[in-house]
Specification:
disordered C terminus, 430 residues, lipid metabolism, plant defense, Patatin, hydrolase, two-stranded antiparallel sheet, alpha/beta, 10 strands, EC 3.1.1.-
Length: 430
C-alpha cells in the first residue's frame, strides 16, 4: 500500500505539471492551483481564498475506425440527454445547454460537431443526441454484420464522393456556427503534426475557420485503406490541411480539451485547475480480446493500429485521472465498455448492452478493473452534477465562469493559435 501511494503521488505530480502547469506539488495535494490560493495557503499569506465560481463542463468523445466505434458514445449521449430533460422538466433541453466545450475525435468528432452545430439565425443547437445517434447508426448499418476490422462503419461515409453525407448534415456551417466551443483533432501530413480544429481559433482568424463538413471529413479520414487522406481548406482558402483521422492521432481528446480550457482565458477566465472543471470522457468501446497465438502467429497491421490507438486512449485516461488526483471521483468520469458488443440483435441492442456493463476503470500500471457501478449509473450521477452546475449559475451573482468569445476584427493582430499551443505541449510531453 505504501508503494502504491508513493507511485500515485509521483505520477500525480508529473501529470499535473505536464497537463496543468503546476510547479509546486503542495498545490496539488492542497486541492488548489498556482493561480488559486487555498484556505491553508491564504491563511499563511494573508490573502482571502477565491470564492467558488463554479465549474467549466467538458464533454470529450473518443474516436476510432471500427464499425462499433461511436455506438457507446451515441447511446451514452442519448441516455444523458434524456436524464437531463427528466431532471429539469424541459422536454426540449439539449446537451449543448449544459456543456461549455465539446471535443471529439473520429466518430466522436462527428457526434460532437452535430451536438453543437446551429443555424446562422438560430442560437439553438440543430441536432439532439437522438439525431446524432440516428445519423451514426445509418452510417453503420451497411457494415455492421462484418466482423472484420476493415469492415464498414464510419469509413463507409467516404465511399460516396466528397463526403456527401456530411454535406447533407452540415451544409455550409463553419466552426463559427456552433452553439458551444468545439475541438476536433486530425493529423496533418503537410506539417507532420497534430492539428486541432477549434472555434476559438476560428473566432480569432478567418484562416482557421473551416466548414464543419470538412472538419468531420478530416477527423475520420485515412482510417483504413478504403479511405485515403483528405485535403481540406479553410473558408478563405488560406490554410490547407492534408488530414488523416483523429482516431489515430488523438483518439482520446480529453487532455487536449482540458489544456485548451485552462489556456483560453478569454472564454474561461476563472478556470485555473482541476477544481474548476467537470469532465466526462466517453470511450469508443474496445475490440474483442483474442487468445495469443491466433491469427497466423501475429497481429495484422490493422490490429496493431487499433492496439496503438486504444493504448494511447487508455494512457490519456490514466494521465488525466492521476492529474485530477482526489478530485477524480467527483470532477472526472470515464465511460468505457469492455469488449465489442454482439452483432446479434442489431445496433440498438448492442448499444444498450454496453451501457449496462460495469464501468471500466484504469489502474496505473495495473491494467483495468470493473467498478461497482454500470456505465448507465455513472451517466445518471453526472447528469445530477450538470443540473447542479446549471442551477448554481442561474442563482449566482458573481463573475461568470464562461464568457462567450466574439469574432475578432479582420485587421486585428493574430494571436498564437490554440491549435499550435496544444501541439507544442504534446510535443514537449512526448
Amino acid at each position: 500500500m505504501d508503494v502504491d501511494k508513493l507511485t500515485y503521488e509521483i505520477f500525480s505530480i508529473l501529470e499535473s505539471k505536464f497537463l496543468f502547469g503546476y510547479d509546486d506539488p503542495k498545490l496539488l495535494f492542497a486541492g488548489g492551483s498556482p493561480h488559486t490560493p487555498t484556505a491553508a495557503t491564504a491563511a499563511v499569506k494573508g490573502t482571502p481564498p477565491r470564492a467558488q465560481s463554479g465549474k467549466v463542463c467538458i464533454l470529450s468523445i473518443d474516436g476510432g475506425g471500427r464499425a462499433a466505434d461511436g455506438l457507446l458514445a451515441g447511446a451514452a449521449l442519448v441516455r444523458l440527454e434524456a436524464s437531463l430533460r427528466w431532471r429539469t422538466g424541459d422536454p426540449k433541453a439539449r446537451l449543448a445547454d449544459f456543456f461549455d466545450v465539446a471535443a471529439g475525435s473520429g466518430a466522436g468528432g462527428v457526434l460532437a460537431a452535430m451536438l453543437v452545430a446551429r443555424g446562422a439565425d438560430d442560437a439553438r443547437p440543430l441536432f439532439s443526441a437522438e439525431d446524432a445517434l440516428a445519423f451514426l447508426v445509418r452510417s453503420l448499418r451497411r457494415g455492421w454484420s462484418s466482423s472484420s476490422s476493415t469492415g464498414g462503419g464510419i469509413r463507409a461515409l467516404f465511399r460516396r464522393p466528397a463526403g456527401a453525407a456530411f454535406r447533407k448534415v452540415f451544409g455550409e456551417l463553419t466552426l463559427r456556427d456552433t452553439a458551444r466551443p468545439v475541438l476536433v483533432p486530425c493529423y496533418d501530413l503537410a506539417t507532420g503534426a497534430p492539428f486541432l480544429f477549434s472555434r476559438a481559433d476560428a473566432a480569432e482568424r478567418p484562416a482557421y475557420d473551416f466548414r464543419l463538413r470538412d472538419v468531420c471529413a478530416a477527423t475520420c479520414a485515412g482510417s483504413d485503406r478504403a479511405s485515403a487522406a483528405v485535403e481540406v481548406r479553410s473558408c478563405d482558402g488560406a490554410t490547407r490541411i492534408v488530414a488523416v483521422g483523429g482516431g489515430v492521432a488523438l483518439g482520446n481528446p480529453t487532455a487536449a480539451a482540458i489544456t485548451h480550457v485552462l489556456n483560453n482565458k478569454r472564454e474561461f477566465p476563472l478556470a485555473s485547475g482541476v477544481e474548476d472543471l467537470l469532465v466526462i470522457s466517453i470511450g469508443s468501446g474496445e475490440g474483442e480480446q483474442r487468445p495469443a497465438g491466433t491469427g497466423g502467429g501475429g497481429a495484422s497491421t490493422s490490429e496493431i493500429v487499433r492496439i496503438a490507438a486504444e493504448g494511447v486512449s487508455d494512457m490519456v485516461d490514466q494521465a488525466v485521472a492521476m492529474a485530477f488526483g482526489h478530485s477524480r471521483a467527483s470532477n472526472y468520469i470515464r465511460i468505457q465498455a469492455m469488449g465489442s458488443p454482439r452483432a446479434r440483435g442489431g445496433v440498438a441492442v448492442a448499444a444498450e448492452e454496453m451501457l449496462s456493463q460495469k464501468n471500466v476503470e484504469s489502474v496505473l500500471f495495473c491494467g483495468k478493473k470493473l467498478g461497482e457501478q454500470t456505465n448507465a449509473d455513472k451517466l445518471e450521477r453526472f447528469a445530477h452534477e450538470l443540473v447542479k452546475e446549471r442551477d448554481r449559475r442561474a442563482s449566482s451573482t458573481g463573475a461568470p465562469a464562461v464568457v462567450k468569445q466574439q469574432p475578432a476584427a479582420e485587421d486585428a493582430a493574430a494571436p498564437a493559435s490554440y491549435s499550435n499551443l496544444v501541439s507544442q505541449m504534446f510535443t514537449s510531453i512526448l
